[in-house]
Amino acid sequence: MNTIMRKSVLGIAGLAFAGGVFAGPAAAHAAPTVESTPITAVAVAADKPAVDTAKLIPHGVQGAQSRIDLSDEQVGNVKAIIAATKKAGMDERAAVVSIATALQESKLENLGHLGDRNDHDSQGLFQQRPSSGWGTVEQITDPEYSTMAFLKGLKQVDGWQDMPLTEAAQTVQVSAYPDHYAQWEQQAADLVAKHWNN
Q1: Which of 2, 4, 8, 174 lies 20 to 30 A from 196 at CA?
Q2: Please, what's the largest Cα pairwise distance for the chain?
Q3: What is the rounded CA–CA span in Å between residue 190 and residue 54?
Q4: pLDDT tens digits, one per residue of 89-120
Q5: Mean pLDDT calculated for residue range 176-187
Q6: Which of 181, 116, 183 is nearest to 150 (CA)?
Q7: pLDDT tens sequence across 61-98
Q8: What are the backbone dihedrals phi and psi of residue 61, each rounded to the nearest 5 degrees, phi first?
Q9: In whole angstroms, what is the distance from residue 149 CA to residue 27 CA?
Q10: Closest Cα to residue 156, out of 143, 142, 173?
Q11: SS3 category, 111
Protein backbone atom coordinates (compact mmCIF):
# COMPACT_ATOMS: atom_id res chain seq x y z
CA MET A 1 0.00 0.00 0.00
CA ASN A 2 2.85 2.35 0.83
CA THR A 3 4.46 1.53 -2.52
CA ILE A 4 1.28 2.35 -4.42
CA MET A 5 0.84 5.54 -2.40
CA ARG A 6 4.46 6.51 -2.95
CA LYS A 7 4.17 5.92 -6.74
CA SER A 8 1.00 8.00 -6.86
CA VAL A 9 2.60 10.87 -4.97
CA LEU A 10 5.72 10.73 -7.14
CA GLY A 11 3.54 10.55 -10.26
CA ILE A 12 1.55 13.60 -9.21
CA ALA A 13 4.74 15.45 -8.30
CA GLY A 14 6.22 14.50 -11.69
CA LEU A 15 3.13 15.82 -13.48
CA ALA A 16 3.25 19.01 -11.47
CA PHE A 17 6.95 19.42 -12.32
CA ALA A 18 6.40 18.65 -15.99
CA GLY A 19 3.43 20.99 -16.05
CA GLY A 20 5.53 23.69 -14.47
CA VAL A 21 8.35 23.20 -16.96
CA PHE A 22 6.01 23.25 -19.94
CA ALA A 23 3.55 25.82 -18.63
CA GLY A 24 6.18 28.07 -17.15
CA PRO A 25 8.02 29.00 -20.32
CA ALA A 26 4.76 29.06 -22.31
CA ALA A 27 3.19 31.41 -19.78
CA ALA A 28 6.33 33.52 -19.67
CA HIS A 29 6.32 33.62 -23.46
CA ALA A 30 2.59 34.39 -23.61
CA ALA A 31 2.82 37.47 -21.40
CA PRO A 32 4.87 39.57 -23.86
CA THR A 33 2.56 38.49 -26.70
CA VAL A 34 -0.44 39.87 -24.85
CA GLU A 35 1.36 43.14 -24.23
CA SER A 36 2.49 43.35 -27.84
CA THR A 37 -0.97 42.68 -29.30
CA PRO A 38 -1.61 46.36 -30.06
CA ILE A 39 1.73 46.53 -31.87
CA THR A 40 0.81 43.47 -33.92
CA ALA A 41 -2.57 45.02 -34.74
CA VAL A 42 -0.87 48.23 -35.87
CA ALA A 43 1.55 46.24 -38.03
CA VAL A 44 -1.33 44.38 -39.70
CA ALA A 45 -3.17 47.65 -40.36
CA ALA A 46 0.04 49.18 -41.73
CA ASP A 47 0.32 46.30 -44.22
CA LYS A 48 -2.82 47.57 -45.92
CA PRO A 49 -1.98 50.69 -47.91
CA ALA A 50 -4.04 53.69 -46.96
CA VAL A 51 -6.41 55.02 -49.58
CA ASP A 52 -4.96 58.11 -51.25
CA THR A 53 -7.67 60.64 -50.42
CA ALA A 54 -6.38 63.02 -53.11
CA LYS A 55 -7.45 60.38 -55.67
CA LEU A 56 -10.94 60.18 -54.22
CA ILE A 57 -11.88 63.82 -54.83
CA PRO A 58 -9.30 65.13 -57.31
CA HIS A 59 -11.34 68.20 -58.31
CA GLY A 60 -12.77 69.08 -54.90
CA VAL A 61 -16.46 68.84 -54.11
CA GLN A 62 -18.97 70.97 -55.97
CA GLY A 63 -21.66 72.76 -54.01
CA ALA A 64 -23.28 71.91 -50.70
CA GLN A 65 -22.84 68.33 -49.60
CA SER A 66 -25.56 65.99 -48.34
CA ARG A 67 -25.10 63.08 -45.95
CA ILE A 68 -27.38 60.32 -44.69
CA ASP A 69 -27.00 57.68 -42.01
CA LEU A 70 -26.70 54.21 -43.51
CA SER A 71 -28.33 50.96 -42.42
CA ASP A 72 -26.46 47.65 -42.47
CA GLU A 73 -28.14 46.88 -45.80
CA GLN A 74 -26.92 50.15 -47.31
CA VAL A 75 -23.37 49.54 -46.04
CA GLY A 76 -23.58 46.07 -47.57
CA ASN A 77 -24.45 47.70 -50.88
CA VAL A 78 -21.45 50.04 -50.52
CA LYS A 79 -19.22 47.01 -50.04
CA ALA A 80 -20.82 45.29 -53.06
CA ILE A 81 -20.14 48.37 -55.22
CA ILE A 82 -16.52 48.46 -54.05
CA ALA A 83 -16.07 44.73 -54.72
CA ALA A 84 -17.54 45.07 -58.21
CA THR A 85 -15.30 48.09 -58.91
CA LYS A 86 -12.23 46.05 -57.98
CA LYS A 87 -13.50 43.13 -60.07
CA ALA A 88 -13.85 45.50 -63.03
CA GLY A 89 -10.19 46.50 -62.54
CA MET A 90 -11.07 50.10 -61.76
CA ASP A 91 -9.73 52.35 -59.04
CA GLU A 92 -11.04 54.13 -55.96
CA ARG A 93 -12.24 57.15 -57.97
CA ALA A 94 -14.53 54.88 -59.99
CA ALA A 95 -15.96 53.59 -56.70
CA VAL A 96 -16.56 57.17 -55.50
CA VAL A 97 -18.43 58.01 -58.73
CA SER A 98 -20.45 54.79 -58.46
CA ILE A 99 -21.38 55.23 -54.80
CA ALA A 100 -22.28 58.91 -55.24
CA THR A 101 -24.48 57.93 -58.18
CA ALA A 102 -26.21 55.21 -56.16
CA LEU A 103 -26.66 57.61 -53.23
CA GLN A 104 -28.49 60.01 -55.54
CA GLU A 105 -30.48 57.40 -57.43
CA SER A 106 -31.61 55.12 -54.59
CA LYS A 107 -29.95 56.24 -51.33
CA LEU A 108 -28.02 52.95 -51.68
CA GLU A 109 -31.21 50.89 -51.38
CA ASN A 110 -31.73 48.11 -53.89
CA LEU A 111 -35.16 49.28 -55.01
CA GLY A 112 -37.66 47.11 -56.81
CA HIS A 113 -40.52 48.49 -58.85
CA LEU A 114 -42.18 51.30 -56.89
CA GLY A 115 -45.51 51.29 -58.72
CA ASP A 116 -46.87 54.80 -59.34
CA ARG A 117 -43.82 56.33 -57.63
CA ASN A 118 -41.48 54.68 -60.15
CA ASP A 119 -39.61 56.66 -62.78
CA HIS A 120 -40.83 54.52 -65.67
CA ASP A 121 -39.32 51.06 -65.01
CA SER A 122 -36.19 52.19 -63.13
CA GLN A 123 -34.97 49.76 -60.48
CA GLY A 124 -31.99 48.77 -58.35
CA LEU A 125 -29.18 50.79 -56.81
CA PHE A 126 -28.60 52.86 -59.96
CA GLN A 127 -32.26 53.08 -61.05
CA GLN A 128 -31.42 51.39 -64.34
CA ARG A 129 -34.22 50.61 -66.77
CA PRO A 130 -34.77 47.24 -68.41
CA SER A 131 -36.53 49.05 -71.28
CA SER A 132 -33.34 51.07 -71.90
CA GLY A 133 -31.20 47.96 -72.27
CA TRP A 134 -29.54 47.87 -68.84
CA GLY A 135 -30.55 44.24 -68.31
CA THR A 136 -33.42 42.25 -66.89
CA VAL A 137 -35.10 43.19 -63.62
CA GLU A 138 -33.27 40.31 -61.92
CA GLN A 139 -29.95 41.57 -63.27
CA ILE A 140 -30.32 45.25 -62.44
CA THR A 141 -31.51 44.47 -58.92
CA ASP A 142 -28.31 42.47 -58.35
CA PRO A 143 -25.78 44.93 -56.83
CA GLU A 144 -22.76 43.37 -58.55
CA TYR A 145 -24.40 43.25 -61.98
CA SER A 146 -25.82 46.78 -61.76
CA THR A 147 -22.47 48.20 -60.62
CA MET A 148 -20.63 46.39 -63.42
CA ALA A 149 -23.18 47.77 -65.92
CA PHE A 150 -22.68 51.30 -64.57
CA LEU A 151 -18.90 50.93 -64.70
CA LYS A 152 -19.05 49.59 -68.26
CA GLY A 153 -20.85 52.81 -69.18
CA LEU A 154 -18.34 54.90 -67.23
CA LYS A 155 -15.39 53.27 -69.04
CA GLN A 156 -16.90 54.41 -72.33
CA VAL A 157 -16.85 58.07 -71.24
CA ASP A 158 -13.62 59.53 -72.60
CA GLY A 159 -11.71 61.31 -69.85
CA TRP A 160 -14.16 60.49 -67.06
CA GLN A 161 -11.24 60.48 -64.59
CA ASP A 162 -10.65 64.19 -65.31
CA MET A 163 -14.29 65.24 -65.15
CA PRO A 164 -16.18 66.57 -62.18
CA LEU A 165 -18.10 63.68 -60.60
CA THR A 166 -21.51 64.99 -61.58
CA GLU A 167 -20.52 65.25 -65.26
CA ALA A 168 -19.11 61.71 -65.34
CA ALA A 169 -22.18 60.28 -63.58
CA GLN A 170 -24.60 62.23 -65.76
CA THR A 171 -22.92 61.07 -68.98
CA VAL A 172 -23.68 57.47 -67.96
CA GLN A 173 -27.06 58.00 -66.27
CA VAL A 174 -28.65 60.69 -68.46
CA SER A 175 -30.68 61.98 -65.52
CA ALA A 176 -33.30 64.71 -65.56
CA TYR A 177 -31.38 66.19 -62.60
CA PRO A 178 -27.73 66.10 -63.71
CA ASP A 179 -26.34 68.35 -60.97
CA HIS A 180 -27.72 66.30 -58.08
CA TYR A 181 -24.88 63.74 -58.09
CA ALA A 182 -22.35 66.30 -56.86
CA GLN A 183 -23.93 66.59 -53.39
CA TRP A 184 -22.92 63.02 -52.50
CA GLU A 185 -19.24 63.18 -53.43
CA GLN A 186 -17.87 63.71 -49.91
CA GLN A 187 -19.91 60.92 -48.32
CA ALA A 188 -19.04 58.60 -51.21
CA ALA A 189 -15.33 59.41 -50.78
CA ASP A 190 -15.57 58.82 -47.02
CA LEU A 191 -17.21 55.44 -47.61
CA VAL A 192 -14.56 54.39 -50.12
CA ALA A 193 -11.78 55.49 -47.74
CA LYS A 194 -13.37 53.43 -44.97
CA HIS A 195 -14.24 50.25 -46.89
CA TRP A 196 -11.81 49.99 -49.84
CA ASN A 197 -9.23 47.93 -47.93
CA ASN A 198 -11.68 45.84 -45.85
Answers
A1: 174
A2: 98
A3: 12
A4: 999 999 999 999 999 999 999 987 555 555 56
A5: 90
A6: 181
A7: 888 999 999 999 999 999 999 999 999 999 999 999 99
A8: -75, 155
A9: 56
A10: 173
A11: strand
The DSSP result for 47-69, as a single string, is HSPPP-HHHHSTT---S------
Q: Contacts from 193-197 at CB under 8 Å and sequence distance 24+?
A: 193/51, 193/53, 193/56, 195/75, 195/78, 195/79, 195/82, 196/51, 196/82, 196/92, 196/95, 197/48, 197/49, 197/50, 197/51
Residue 124 phi, psi dihedral angles, 5° rounding = 80, -170
SS3 175: coil
124 DSSP 8-state letter? B
For residues 100 and 103, give the distance between their C-alpha atoms in angstroms, rounded to a whole number: 5
DSSP assignments along 66-88, one per residue? ------HHHHHHHHHHHHHHHHT
85 neighbors 94 (Cβ within 8 angstroms): yes
Predicted TM-score (pTM) of this structure? 0.72
Q: What is the rounded distance in angstroms from the CA atom of residue 98 to the CA atom of residue 148?
A: 10
Number of C-beta neighbours around residue 135 at 10 A: 19
Residue 123 main-chain phi, psi, to 5 deg: -150, 170
Polymer length in residues for the chain? 198
